[in-house]
Structures are given as C-alpha cells and as structure tokens.
Task: inverse folding
C-alpha cells in the first residue's frame, strides 16, 4: 500500500486515529490542522498556571482506547496515567437533594433504595438490560460500516431491535424501572452529551448507564491534552506528518476524484482525502456544489447537536462543596430540553455541569487554587453576544454560590467564556454546534452522514457527524471502521 498518499483534514481525535491507522496499513499520511495543537474539541488552554481541557473531560469506555492503541502494539498505561474516579460524580438536584454516584455498584444500589423503595432492584434490572444492550451493540452494530439501508435493517437488527429497545424512547423505558424523577435523571443525563433528549432518543442509549455504572468514569492525569499527545505520538511513530496552523482552503477534485488539498497557498497532493473537520462546513466551504454529497437543505433539516456555553474559571482558593465531576440537574429539566431542541432559546433555569479536575490532578492549577470548567448545553445557532455571556456568568456563579454556600466571584483570577461564535471560529462548527449531529433514531447508523463521498471518488469523512457518533471513543471507532474500508480499496 506504500506510495498511496492520504491527506487528513483536521487533527481531532477522529483525524489522528484515522491518520495513525492508515499509516500502520502502509499509507503515506499528512494531517493538516487549522489550529496550532492536536485534539480538536479536546485541545487545551493554559493561563497563569491553570491548564484547561477545553472540551471532553469524561474518559469513558476504556476498552475502546485499549483496542485502538493495540493496533500500534501499545497499551494506554505506557502512554498516560489513568485514574478511576470515586465518586464518579456528584449530582445536585433542583429539589435541593444531593448525592454522589460511587464506583462501587453495591453502594449505588443502596443509594437508589434510600431514595425510592425498590430502587435498588430497579437499578439492578436496568443495568442488566443496559449491559446486554452494550454487548450486542458493540459486538454487532457499532464497529460496522453501513452502506445501505439493507446493511442496517437486516433480520438480526429487527430481531434484536425489540430487545435493544430501539423503537421506544429512553425516558419511557427508564420509567419502567425507576419512578423517582430525580433518580431517573441519573439514568438519562448522559444523553445530553450525545446531543439528544430522553424523550426523543431511542432507549438503546440506556447502554450509556452500563458505560457509566459498570465500566467506570476515568481521568487521564494531565487531562485530555495528554490523551491528544498520545494519539499524535503513536501516529507520528507510524510515520504520519502533522502540519499545524494549516487550514484547508479547498479539496482538489480532478475528473470526479480527490487529488489533494490546498492549504496555506500550497497544494498537498493525495490519492485519498479524509475530512475530520466539521462535515457540514467542509462540504459547503471546501467543495463545489456538484461535488457535495449533501446540500444546504439537507443540513438545515437535520437535528444539529447542542452548542454549549463554556466558562473556564480559575479561583485563588479551594472549594469544599465540589467533587471532580458535578452535575446540577434542574427541576425544569424538560423545559431546558425544550429550549435546546424544540423552541431554540437561552434557558431560564439551566441544568449544567461543573468539572473541577484540580480535585484529582494538582498539575492543572497552582497550589491552593481551583480549576473550574462550566458547561451549559444550549441550542445551536443562537446569538451569543457579550451581554448574554455576562448574564450567564452571573446567573451560574450566583447559583453555584447558593448551592455550595461558598463565595466564588471575588476569588476569580482567570476567566474565559466560550460559546457558539467561538466554536465556529475555532473549529469551523456549523451553527456553532459543540457536538456535531444529534443521536435521534433517524440519525443513527446508516442514517448518519456517510463515511464516503457519494460524488467524489477517494473522498472520505470521519468524526462525530458520522457513524457511530459523538464522543471521543465513538470518533475513534468511526476512524477504525473507515481505515478498514479505505484499506480494502
Ligand atoms: C465542551 C465539550 C465537552 C465534551 N465532553 C466530552 C466528554 O467528556 N467525553 C467524551 O468522550 N466526549 C466529549 N465531548 C465530545 C468529543 O469531544 C467529540 O465528540 C470529539 O472530540 C470530536 O472529535 P472529532 O475528531 O470528530 O472532531 P473535532 O474534535 O472537532 O476535530 C476536528 C478538527 O478539524 C479541524 N479543522 C476544522 N476546519 C479545518 C480546516 N479547514 N482545515 C484543517 N483543519 C480543520 C478543527 O480545528 C479540529 O481540530 C465533548 C465535546 C465538547 C465540545
């Protein structure tokens, strides 16, 4: 296969995984990245001794990373230090209740029982079903390329589909096991990170509770920047060349075939081009209309995943009331979903997430200080001017001060707010989406945008818009599938 040149546009986890795997298969690979560091949405920001993971902070599904690095003859523990978090996370409810989800399952059964009679048994049964869903999904559906509807709608899926609860909503399904509304939120919160809602996402995604409760919540010491460096280094060892500060300006097409990429005024020749950059943006901005697989109308009709208002805050003191991961799940949780998916607007009473990695990792904040990362999921495509940012900074800090009973505002020594327009300028995100394409039933597997261009030979796509979807493990799998297909020729 040597001699076959591939250019990958984007050094997100998806792009680096594809590049490394193709290089291992003998391709001559160059990655062009618009920004100056690897990791894409998982890049880092450093300021005055604080180190922020700008995007992902939950290291989930460790087996996916083990499998990925094994293709290079490596193990994660040779590349970075992983720590299992305990508690996994702290949850604050709008009702005023607070609880820690722990790494020991038996403790979690007790916790559920303390809040609902029969809650222990409900959780046990829910997790048994979730782990079955996970096993079947991983073995049969996730690591698989879907070219046609027939690949998807085969007898197996129709048979397993009922058992996997593909045709039922997550919320309806979870209600069968747990009645308490707050407890049910613990079974459903992670669907937000897949860009969906409990009412509109298939109950198949209950498998995320297996990921959470059974596989554990982990943290790479040094943060996701360490993970990004590990991906880049294994790719480099396999021969991949990285060019940073090199935004692709055009995908070159000759006689219906990809022939290279123009960046920084130079043409990078290629036999194949892999796009890891935002799918919608790349099609609309790097290709002529007749070379696009999907037109603007297609993207307008799609359920685009949420954007986020992010706040990177450094405090000159420690906080007592927070854990490493903290979720605030508002009583107006349904209304918040409504503002994201049904009637797009800024939420009045948002649910939000606070990461405080300095609880685990002293390298991310100066001594005696605290590193805080706030994430408020919001609808894509909203205006996010200074006034709005200031309003939410105020709203969220006031809320957290009340919740923890600790003063925060006058201790802020680092502050950066990041929202829609930053996602667009930093990553070329369509409508400022943080996460790509939502996981509705009609945007699952074969219904996600294709790994292949249907118009240009030798042009491919990987990352969070494609199958299997959103999240670092998923984009790594997307690239494993793609690299296999490209190598087959
Ligand atoms: C705030 C936030 C929190 C998250 N939390 C988690 C979490 O806890 N756990 C988890 O697993 N996942 C999480 N995710 C999701 C996860 O980060 C993404 O699904 C994943 O990183 C997407 O990877 P990707 O390679 O598909 O795309 P990206 O990371 O977006 O990479 C695409 C790359 O293409 C580059 N690019 C764009 N245009 C061009 C161009 N013209 N030329 C060259 N390069 C270009 C971009 O700069 C970028 O580097 C989170 C995401 C966000 C935003």
Result:
């Amino acid at each position: 296969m040597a001699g076959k040149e591939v250019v990958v546009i984007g050094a997100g986890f998806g792009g680096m995984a594809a590049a490394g795997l193709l290089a291992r298969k003998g391709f001559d690979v160059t990655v062009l990245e618009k920004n100056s560091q690897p990791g894409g949405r998982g890049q880092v920001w450093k300021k005055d001794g604080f180190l922020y993971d700008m995007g992902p902070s939950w290291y989930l599904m460790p087996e996916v990373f083990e499998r990925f690095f094994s293709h290079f003859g490596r193990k994660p523990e040779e590349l970075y230090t992983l720590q299992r978090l305990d508690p996994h996370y702290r949850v604050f409810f709008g009702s005023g209740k607070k609880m820690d989800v722990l790494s020991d399952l038996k403790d979690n059964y007790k916790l559920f029982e303390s809040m609902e009679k029969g809650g222990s048994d409900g959780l046990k049964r829910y997790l048994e079903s979730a782990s079955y869903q996970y096993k079947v999904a991983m073995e049969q559906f996730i690591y698989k390329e879907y070219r046609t509807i027939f690949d998807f709608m085969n007898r197996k899926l129709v048979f397993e589909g009922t058992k996997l609860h593909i045709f039922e909503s997550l919320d309806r399904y979870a209600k069968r096991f747990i009645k308490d509304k707050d407890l049910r939120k613990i079974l459903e919160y992670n669907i937000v990170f897949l860009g969906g809602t409990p009412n509109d996402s298939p109950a198949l995604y209950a498998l995320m509770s297996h990921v959470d409760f059974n596989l554990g919540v982990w943290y790479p010491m040094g943060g996701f920047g360490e993970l990004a460096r590990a991906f880049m280094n294994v790719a480099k060892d396999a021969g991949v060349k990285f060019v940073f500060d090199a935004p692709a300006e055009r995908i070159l097409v000759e006689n219906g075939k990809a022939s290279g990429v123009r960046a920084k005024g130079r043409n990078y020749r290629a036999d194949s081009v892999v796009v890891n950059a935002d799918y919608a943006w790349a099609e609309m901005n790097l290709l002529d209309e007749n070379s696009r697989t999907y037109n603007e109308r297609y993207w307008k009709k799609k359920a685009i995943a949420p954007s986020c208002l992010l706040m990177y805050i450094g405090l000159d003191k420690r906080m007592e009331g927070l854990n490493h991961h903290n979720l605030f799940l508002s009583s107006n949780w349904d209304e918040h979903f409504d503002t994201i998916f049904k009637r797009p607007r800024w939420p009045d009473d948002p649910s939000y997430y606070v990461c405080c990695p300095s609880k685990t990792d002293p390298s991310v904040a100066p001594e005696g200080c605290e590193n805080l990362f706030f994430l408020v999921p919001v609808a894509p495509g909203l205006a996010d001017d200074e006034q709005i940012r200031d309003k939410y900074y105020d709203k969220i800090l006031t809320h957290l001060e009340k919740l923890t009973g600790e003063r925060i505002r006058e201790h802020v020594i680092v502050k950066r707010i990041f929202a829609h327009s930053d996602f667009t300028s930093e990553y070329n995100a369509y409508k400022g989406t943080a996460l790509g394409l939502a996981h509705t039933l009609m945007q699952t597997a074969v219904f996600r945008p294709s790994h292949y261009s249907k118009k240009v030979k030798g042009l491919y796509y990987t990352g969070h818009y494609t199958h299997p979807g959103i999240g670092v493990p998923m984009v790594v799998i997307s690239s494993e599938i793609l690299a296999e297909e490209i190598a087959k020729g």
Remarks:
- The pocket of flavin-adenine dinucleotide is lined by residues 9-15, 32-35, 40-42, 55-58, 60, 193, 247-248, 276-278, 308, 310, 375, 427-428, 434-435, 463-464, 470-473, 475 (CB under 6 Å).
